[in-house]
Amino acid sequence: MRVLRAFQAAGLEYVLIGAGAMAFHGVVRATEDLDLFIRATPENVERLRAALRAVYQDDPNINEISSEDLLGDYPAVRYCPPTGDLYFDVRTRLGEVANFETTEAETKEVDGIQIKVATPSALLQIEEGHCSVAGSDGRRGAARTVQLKGRELMPVEKFRSIEDMNKAPVRESQEPPFERFLRLCARYWAIAPKRYPRGVFKFRTIEEAQKAREKHVS
């Protein structure tokens, strides 16, 4: 929420996608990253840097996030802040499938923050498009993914394609897995609409339970 507040203060033009956006629609996943499209202009990339500097005490690694990369050969950048509790996957485009301008979005408000979030239909379109282009980028293997001392990664990594980004290793946490799962669920549950009914419900099959869940989430 500190980062989203900083995005608003900096005037960043962005739209949340992925599991972060799903949480705003009431579907909670224990994801460890925040995915977003940003408008592909030099001015907007500078707004992104300004917002991240405001939250992460002018982390010098933020300077490696450049408009030359995001508007050029590296449309996907992963930033791991010093806190190490989450990372950001920033994109200007997903091949020819989607970008900031083509992603349908709606505005959500949480704690006075206006947050631009991809609609459920846009999230589905992005996922389907991602699957359809998987493996089609001939420049695979040129990602700037550097691994140091086992699984210690660089704070900023740059990728030529979403496929390269998805294949890259991520930081391993020293936190016990179940405790980390609970913490991550709590983070996204804090922004998810509380639409679930209260009480005790009984179902004869998993299918009945799933249908009931979909009815109350939609």
Biggest sheet: strand arrangement: 1-2-4-3-11
Radius of gyration: 18 Å
Into which percentage range does the β-strand content fall?
15-25%
Number of domains: 1
Please summarize the sheet with the most strands.
Answer: 5 strands, mixed
* Inertia-based shape: globular
- Helical percent range? 25-40%
Structural class: alpha+beta
Please describe what this structure looks like.
The chain has helices at residues 2-10, 18-24, 42-55, 67-70, 120-133, 162-167, 177-189, 206-217; strands spanning 14-17, 33-38, 76-79, 87-91, 93-94, 98-99, 105-110, 113-118, 147-148, 152-153, 156-159. The strands form four sheets. A five-stranded mixed β-sheet has the order 1-2-4-3-11. It has a two-stranded antiparallel ribbon with strand order 5-6. It has a two-stranded antiparallel sheet with strand order 7-8. The chain has one domain. Helix content is 36%, strand content 20%. Helix 1 crosses helix 3. With 218 residues, it is of the alpha+beta class.
Key words describing this protein structure:
218 residues, alpha+beta, 5-stranded mixed beta sheet, two-stranded antiparallel sheet, 11 strands, 36% helix, 20% strand
Topology:
Elements: H1 2-10, E1 14-17, H2 18-24, E2 33-38, H3 42-55, H4 67-70, E3 76-79, E4 87-91, E5 93-94, E6 98-99, E7 105-110, E8 113-118, H5 120-133, E9 147-148, E10 152-153, E11 156-159, H6 162-167, H7 177-189, H8 206-217
Parallel strand pairs: 2-4
Antiparallel strand pairs: 1-2, 3-4, 3-11, 5-6, 7-8, 9-10
